[in-house]
Amino acid sequence: EKTRAIEPSMNASPIRSVVESRKAPKTVPLPLDRASTPSRMSRTEPTTKRAAPSQKQRSSALYSKNTTTAATAQTVTPVKVSASASGEVGEAKAEGSGVVIAPNGVIVTNDHVVQGAVQVRVVFTDGHPTMPGTVVGTDPQPDIAGVKVDASGLNPATLGRSSELALADTVYAIGFPLDLGVTVTRGIVSGLDRSVAVQGESTVEHLVGLLQTDAAINPGNSGGPLVDASGHVVGIDTAGASAASADNVGFSIAIDDALPVIKQILTQPTARQAWLGVEALSVNTAASAAALGLDP
User: Fold this and answer.
1) Which of 112, 237, 252, 257 is catalytic?
2) 97 tagged catalytic
3) Which end of the chain is more exposed for a tag (fewer CB within 10 A), N or C?
């Protein structure tokens, strides 16, 4: 019997595809511990062969690793965010993910999940009933939105510091992809401070300061948390490379950048940020210098 490919749900908010890079990504060198770097002399030094671990030891180590992973994933309870809007050709629906950040019902998700929403519904997985939500504020540029439900005693996630992340740190993407229910995928931090352009519904949007990960981010993951090995939220998932162009390339909004925006849209929902678009170009030829009135 052939294995059937899983098709994305029509309701799932499509994860935005990366269409181009706005500028060359910054490179961050891996830290190198000199004490652990093998020298040429060490190749000729005698070594003591360690005994191979027994099956019991291997099983115990695997069990310890798996239980640690499970405990980390269970520290954050994601929510499913369903939004509907009345369009010119009928009602449009989108589904994404979110994360509770305050016990009084404050939830963070992506702007593109609830954009134009007339009705929002939040599905919990911790025993709380499904509740209607209200969009209290959005900011399209970093792709952040705040949703409020009429509840108390919710279990908020612990926010970490994305500035403390390093390349190859373990991270987990948690959300509701493809209408499959709560899904956890594990990966590493593949890149820091990425700048990419993502394809929205009608325009190309430029996002900066993103975390790159190889943890699978699929349609429906939008707005869900990216969690570090301590169970702290370090990012909000927002985009992924299309399957036709790349594999295991996803992006999250760094929580250090998202938190000030979250606070602003919750306290001043109608506030607008001014911004100035600037693009830098290298003047590396005499012709380009002359065109700008500069000395060659």
Assistant:
1) 112
2) no
3) N
Q: How confident is the model at residue 20 (pLDDT cuts 50, 70, 90)?
A: very low
Which H or E run includes 289? helix 286-291
User: Dihedral through CA 274, CA 276, CA 277, CA 283, nearest 10?
Assistant: -170
- Residue corresponding to tokens 């229910």: 181
* CB atoms inside a 10 Å sphere around CB 98: 29
Catalytic residue among 111, 139, 143, 237: 143
The model's pTM: 0.69
Per-residue pLDDT of 83-100, as tens digits, reads 887 544 456 678 899 999
The residue from 17, 82, 222, 252 that is catalytic is 222
How far from chain centre, in Å, is Cα 272? Answer: 24
Is 112 a residue of the active site?
A: yes
In angstroms, the Cα distances linking 92 to 64, 83, 127, 131, 197 are: 45, 8, 28, 20, 24
Highest mean pLDDT of the ranges 16-30, 48-62, 128-142, 233-247: 128-142
